[in-house]
């Protein structure tokens, strides 16, 4: 068994091989956004809620040292850009695989946006990180989107499938994508790739029921989990919602059952 396989076990629950990822890397892009102003508090809430993995930038990792309960798997995020600059979709590397190992992370994550003028730079960076992850046997989570200057809105489903394929081809161990509008396309993506695919929570949902129904359809399409940030940490009852999500991902709850549980808490 390889070191990478052992480390992946820290993320993928033995219960059903699925995972709930809690991304908390938004502060670099968006600043102290609502729900993330007290990082230690939201981080501990996610751990109590039973997430399988947390994504954080290097400077926030020391917050984990104060946690006394068992930790989930930790991805150190290596990509950054801010919405203050002229190229917010151009992600650059701000860390290395070796640094993540020294800082105690179990894996690394990289964000890639396809379809823009800086796409080649991000693909080069992804390739280099993938090489280092293979060398050091560190799991690689690739968050990949189509967000170029000429990309139509809404993003066509076939380009999401293309993006997922790029991530798999260049060494991802887990792939995070936005859910296509057509769940049949999502099923085709999950069936065609050799590594787990998780769907992003996406933009903030105003209706909890609609969000959970979307999650049910995604899970029914074969995804191996979810990566949900703002739909949890910007919710009025984030911990209750996170528990409902976990029960859907790991215990087979339907959206209706999860909503009923959420409503009773």
From TrEMBL:
<dbReference type="Pfam" id="PF01791">
    <property type="entry name" value="DeoC"/>
</dbReference>
<dbReference type="InterPro" id="IPR041720">
    <property type="entry name" value="FbaB-like"/>
</dbReference>
<dbReference type="InterPro" id="IPR002915">
    <property type="entry name" value="DeoC/FbaB/LacD_aldolase"/>
</dbReference>
<dbReference type="InterPro" id="IPR013785">
    <property type="entry name" value="Aldolase_TIM"/>
</dbReference>
<dbReference type="InterPro" id="IPR050456">
    <property type="entry name" value="DeoC/FbaB_aldolase"/>
</dbReference>
<protein>
    <submittedName>
        <fullName>2-amino-3,7-dideoxy-D-threo-hept-6-ulosonate synthase</fullName>
    </submittedName>
</protein>
<feature type="active site" description="Proton donor">
    <location>
        <position position="145"/>
    </location>
</feature>
<dbReference type="GO" id="GO:0004332">
    <property type="term" value="F:fructose-bisphosphate aldolase activity"/>
</dbReference>
<feature type="active site" description="Schiff-base intermediate with dihydroxyacetone-P">
    <location>
        <position position="176"/>
    </location>
</feature>
């Amino acid at each position: 068994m390889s070191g990478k396989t052992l480390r992946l076990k820290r993320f993928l629950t033995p219960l059903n091989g699925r995972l709930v990822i809690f991304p908390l890397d938004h502060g670099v892009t968006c600043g102290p956004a609502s729900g993330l102003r007290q990082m230690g508090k939201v981080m501990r809430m996610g751990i109590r809620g039973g997430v399988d993995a947390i994504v954080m930038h290097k400077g926030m990792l020391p917050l984990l040292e104060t946690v006394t309960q068992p930790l989930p798997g930790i991805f150190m995020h290596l990509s950054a850009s801010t919405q203050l600059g002229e190229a917010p979709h151009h992600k650059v590397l701000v860390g290395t695989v070796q640094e993540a190992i020294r800082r105690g992370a179990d894996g690394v994550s990289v964000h890639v946006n396809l379809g823009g003028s800086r796409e080649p730079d991000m693909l080069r960076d992804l390739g280099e990180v993938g090489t280092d992850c293979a060398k050091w046997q560190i799991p690689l989570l690739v968050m990949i989107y189509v967000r170029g200057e000429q990309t139509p809105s809404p993003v066509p489903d076939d380009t999401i499938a293309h993006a997922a394929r790029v991530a798999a081809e260049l060494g991802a161990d887990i792939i995070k994508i936005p859910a296509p509008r057509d769940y049949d396309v999502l099923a085709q993506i999950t069936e065609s790739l050799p590594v787990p695919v998780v769907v992003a929570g996406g933009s903030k949902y105003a209706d909890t029921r609609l969000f959970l129904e979307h999650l049910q359809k995604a899970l029914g399409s074969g995804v191996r989990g979810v990566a949900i940030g703002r739909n949890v940490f910007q919710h009025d009852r984030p911990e209750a919602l996170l528990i409902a999500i976990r029960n859907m991902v790991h215990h087979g709850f339907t959206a209706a059952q999860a909503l009923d549980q959420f409503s009773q808490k």
